[in-house]
Amino acid sequence: MAMVNKDVLVNVDYTHGPNEVGADFILIKRDPILDENTAISVIVKTGSLRNALGDVERQIDESKAPRKDINGNNIFVREFWVVTNSTISNNARTLIQDKFKNQNIVFLG
Asked: Which terminal CB of the chain, N or C, has fewer other CB atoms within 10 Å?
């Protein structure tokens, strides 16, 4: 599967591991209307997300740290995708969205 579409998704960095700084992946998405790139932090979890969200909250906080893109330019994460291979409870969504009111957070279960 080709994840990178030069019209929309311009780069995918796999950052999972000891130096991930919150994000398991960093996606760079091209906004064709504004003609600018947006960095997306993808946080991937296994199992259901319910009330114990400390790890997800930590990863979102860490993902906000400035980082460099593949060209050495500073990028700042403005969007967060929380992905799980199971379900995300409504309560978990509400708690995360309430804590990070000023962030664009998308839940994918």
From this structure: N
